[in-house]
Design brief:
Helix content is about 50%, strand content about 15%. It has about 575 residues and is α/β, with parallel strands linked by helices. Helix 1 runs antiparallel to helix 4. The structure holds phosphoenolpyruvate and magnesium ion.
Length: about 575
């Protein structure tokens, strides 16, 4: 191969910072597929599932080609090549024989056949032909992805290189994949798809690793082991940078590191504004293992524990004791600080869960379907198990119980009744629990923000989930990069809902926090302070930067300025006013 051509790709900046390293194409050497033995009666169904997945991927190639317009011609050639590979009987037919003969699942059969083919290519001397093995892997990988839906994703295997020098390049990453990163220390990750507040992006920010999503064809254009610079702050990826660019980015990278280490000095200082208003800064966590990061950032408590992540990628329902242990671990780890445990927000983009019965109930439009509290209320046994586990853990510290996705008064009433039922059963069994646990609700559906009075009358605290609130107010799928440019926290409708919720809660004397991504966005801190917000919950990695902003803010100046901003309806005017706030 000749010298490497340098080029730049632009995507969504979802997690800041700079990483320099080599491309690690996810799943080339890392794809792990489960092997399942099937009963004879399941075999024909499995063959049909295989055929459907192959057809779906071929259809996807066709529509990609149609929609290509002015895209580079090598991309068209690439699609043709992959369609051809998938039409070859070695891949289109042989796996069916394997399914029937070996009584195995389709993914496994396809993978076996791929390994067999690729093994033959590896023996060839010709570089061009040897590289076709790579195309076979890519094509097969797409079918496997189709077969396994959005779960069963890549389990990561380390490969020789130091992890911080590896940049994960993937078409898509599920939150489960990113969770697996917690055990690794990759330099950055970039993907073709995904939105700013997708759970994948949220986790990236939590890990404090640079990430650029929505790069469209990065996974196909970038080759394994190519040198990359990822500028997470600007949403830019530079492939094969020249020496001059490399040096410039190395310098910027070390400047960022210096800034970050300076911030650490703020860990133990109070988050107090210039006019001496105390602000509570809390952490969002997904696992007990996130507790050290929360403490390290100086969090005053956990404002949101997304419990559904604990059990991601499992196919069974976690029992009460297992949940109890996990919750208690967080409660103990937080050493007397308050822990807000949210009941499962299952059924959305975090992946299919537990047994197939539940996965089956999640329909084509999961964000509007049986998600979060709706799913919990429709599965009373599952809900009771979780409530009992939370109530038991609450005995060991300060715990608040948070309910996601409430829209109706009767959902709150039913939830409160379910909590009472769980308490009663624990009382009868003489198991210790917290009788006085405070129950609060997420405000993340516009209906809840508009009719917040019925929440205030029933609940002890509120937490605004701006990620979903924006998604539902603007009808923008938060995980879809195609509409990411329309996902606007500063839309006047969003601001009205936020301000209305905060002011109403204040008047009612009800504590209110923001636990969506807006709380960790330093450009929004003064806006929220000016609206009257005094509790912010965010990924631990964002906390010190927010604290720094609070220390230099004055709420007595911000309040009137934000009132003026809220009177604006024109987006340009709103931005202008926000810039002024941030320059104050
Ligand atoms: C939100 O919607 O803002 C929120 C905090 O919940 P999640 O991101 O888990 O949906
Ligand atoms: Mg939400």
């Amino acid at each position: 191969m000749g010298f490497a051509v340098s080029y730049t790709l632009h995507g969504l900046s979802v997690s800041g910072g700079i990483a320099i390293g080599e491309a690690c194409l996810l799943s080339q050497a890392t794809l792990e597929v489960a092997h399942r033995k099937l009963a004879p009666r399941q075999l024909e169904k499995e063959v049909a599932r295989f055929e459907a997945a192959m057809a779906a991927v071929r259809g996807e190639y066709e529509s990609l080609k149609k929609g290509m317009g002015g895209a580079p011609s090598e991309f068209g050639a690439f699609i043709d090549l992959h369609s051809m590979i998938l039409s070859d009987p070695e891949l289109a037919e042989a796996p069916k024989v394997l399914i029937r003969e070996k009584r195995c699942n389709a993914e496994w059969a396809l993978l076996q056949q791929m390994e067999h083919l690729v093994g033959q290519f590896d023996k060839i001397d010709d570089l061009y032909l040897r590289e076709r093995a790579y195309d076979i892997r890519q094509a097969v990988e797409r079918v496997i992805k189709e077969l396994s839906g959005h779960d069963g994703r890549a389990a990561l295997k380390a490969r020789g290189q130091r992890e911080e020098h590896q940049i994960i390049v993937a078409h898509d990453l599920s939150p489960a994949d990113v969770m697996a990163f917690k055990e690794h220390r990759f330099g950055a990750f970039i993907t073709d798809v995904g939105g700013f507040t997708s759970h994948t992006a949220i986790l990236a920010r939590g890990l404090r690793i640079p990430a650029v999503l929505g790069l469209h064809h990065a996974r196909q254009l970038i080759r394994d082991k190519e040198k990359l610079i990822v500028d997470g702050t600007r949403g830019v990826v530079i492939v094969n940078p020249d020496q001059h660019v490399l040096e410039e980015y190395e310098l910027r990278k070390s400047q960022i590191e210096i800034e970050r280490s300076k911030l650490k000095r703020l860990k133990d200082s109070r988050a107090r504004t210039l006019d001496r208003v105390d602000v509570e800064l809390l952490a969002n966590i997904e696992m007990p293992s996130d507790v050290p990061a929360a403490l390290e950032a100086g969090a005053e408590g956990v404002g949101l524990f997304r419990t559904e992540f604990l059990f991601l990628g499992r196919s069974d329902m976690p029992c009460e004791d297992e949940q109890f242990e996990a919750y208690r671990k967080v409660v103990r780890g937080m050493e007397g600080r308050t822990v807000t445990i949210r009941t499962f927000d299952l059924g959305n983009d975090k992946g299919p869960y537990f047994d197939e019965v539940l996965a089956d109930r999640v329909k084509t439009n999961p964000a509007l379907g049986l998600r979060a509290i709706r799913l919990s209320l429709s599965e009373p046994a599952m809900f009771q198990t979780q409530l009992r586990a939370i109530l038991r853990a609450a005995h060991y510290g300060k715990v608040k119980l948070l309910v996601p996705m409430l829209a109706h008064a009767h959902e709150i009433d039913q939830t409160l009744a379910a909590v009472e039922q769980a308490k009663l059963s624990l009382r009868n069994e003489r198991i210790p629990y917290d009788e006085d646990i405070r129950v609060g609700g997420m405000i993340e559906i516009p209906a809840a923000a508009l009719a917040v009075g019925m929440f205030l009358r029933r609940l002890k605290f509120l937490s605004i989930g701006t990620n979903d609130l924006i998604q539902y107010t603007l009808a923008i799928d938060r995980s879809d990069e195609q509409v990411a440019h329309l996902y606007d926290p500063l839309h006047p409708a969003v601001l009205m809902l936020l301000a209305h919720t905060i002011t109403s809660a204040d008047k009612a004397g009800c504590p209110v926090s923001v636990c969506g991504e807006m709380a960790g966005d330093v450009t929004m801190t003064r806006l929220l302070l000016g609206m009257g917000l005094r509790q912010f919950s965010m990924q631990p990695g964002q906390l010190l930067e927010i604290k720094q902003r609070i220390l230099t803010s004055d709420t007595s100046e911000l309040a009137p300025a934000v009132r003026r901003l809220l009177r604006c309806e024109e987006p340009a005017k709103i931005r202008e006013q926000l810039d002024k706030l941030n320059a104050m």
